[in-house]
Amino acid sequence: MPSSAPTTAFTAKTAAEPSALPAILGTYKRQAPLFVRGDGVYMFDEHGKKYLDLVAGIAVTSLGHNDAGVMNAMQEALATGLIHTSNLYRTAPGEALAKWFVDHSFASSVFFANSGAEANEGAFKFARRWAKSTGHQAKHEIIAVRGSFHGRMPGTLAATDRPAYRLPFRPLMGGVTIVERELEELRTVLDPETAAAVIVEPIQGEGGVRVVDPEFLRGLRELTRERNVLLILDEIQCGLGRTGSFFAHEQIGIVPDMLTIAKPLANGLPIGAILVNDEVARVMQPGDHGTTFGGGPLLAHVAHHVVQRLSDPAMLQHVRETGAWFGEQLQGIADRTGQVRAIRGKGLMWGMDVHEPAAAIIGRAFEKGLLLVSAGEHTLRFLPPLVITQAELAEGLAILESAIQA
Ligand SMILES: *Cc1c(COP(=O)(O)O)cnc(C)c1O
Fold this sequence. Notes:
Elements: E1 35-39, E2 42-45, E3 50-53, H1 56-59, H2 68-79, H3 92-104, E4 109-113, H4 116-133, E5 141-145, H5 154-158, H6 163-166, E6 176-179, H7 183-189, E7 195-200, E8 203-204, E9 210-211, H8 214-226, E10 230-234, E11 258-261, E12 272-276, H9 278-283, H10 297-310, H11 313-337, E13 340-346, E14 349-354, H12 358-367, E15 370-371, E16 373-374, E17 379-382, H13 390-405
Parallel strand pairs: 3-15, 5-6, 5-7, 7-10, 10-11
Antiparallel strand pairs: 1-2, 2-3, 4-12, 8-9, 11-12, 13-14, 14-17, 16-17
The protein binds pyridoxal-5'-phosphate (PLP).
């Protein structure tokens, strides 16, 4: 064989062994068309068909597609030629983004991760690191509540209350317990000698868009303080403007010890963050945790632009007003069709329990050019871009109503 012959083909399949399997591992059921373009609240498929996007990449593209500010921030970052440095070196965008959060939240320090699950996994580690520093050697337990979703990785899966996600992967990470969403139960479970942290979503997203009772959350904050246990709020889905305040916990009037965020943080670029108070920050030492990519200059520069946009009072007022109107319209659909069991939500995060399987309605809506996602078998979930107008929502509501009636 001449030395110039290609040597990369020897693992390729021959025609004799074709594969019926999808090249991308089959962990998702995907709609058939290829999506090729996005603009504002619309996505376009390969045939030029336009879809109104009430999913926003699952609460990610809050500023919509092809947003001029996001695109410009990306160009500015690319112009430096520096996409990545690793966390061995300092960069200005990461420091500016961290400083922004320190200036605009309870946090004294921020750790950047690459996704929501990673942010929560990190928060669990930080909680255990802190717990050991209290002198109780058996203090390590992480407690989550009924209906929770915190991610698909070992620790976060153990804290996720969805049997179908959990059962094939047992044994799950130890030292993680799911309890009822009730103060009485937590009072019996929270032992200061063994419990490190409680994690809860102020609005449970995947679990069916359940607005957790603010009284429960305020009581939980008090109880965790009493028992010397950390409170972690997971605002990966409900945070960053989604419910009409920049952080969901502002509306509840509590302050967590740690807060995790991710989904919309860079409007589609993968970044997550753990915001920690000074008590937690003080125990973390070099070497205690790490990430190769986390908080790189491109992502951080774009995220810095995004958080300024999403925290703008005019944006938050738009979310509150448009969201309240949207909730009323969903109720109207419920009243007119008789096909809806319940509606829950806040801001631009809503769930609608339907009699039919949600997937059937989502399929018919897709045919009519409307993108919807479920949250459980009988719940439709609405997570539109936060920049959506009332007229655009009205367009979606009309399609939704016809898809529910069909
Ligand atoms: C999506 C989500 C996660 C997991 O985020 P990934 O980026 O998918 O790992 C965790 N918690 C909540 C509340 C979420 O909505």
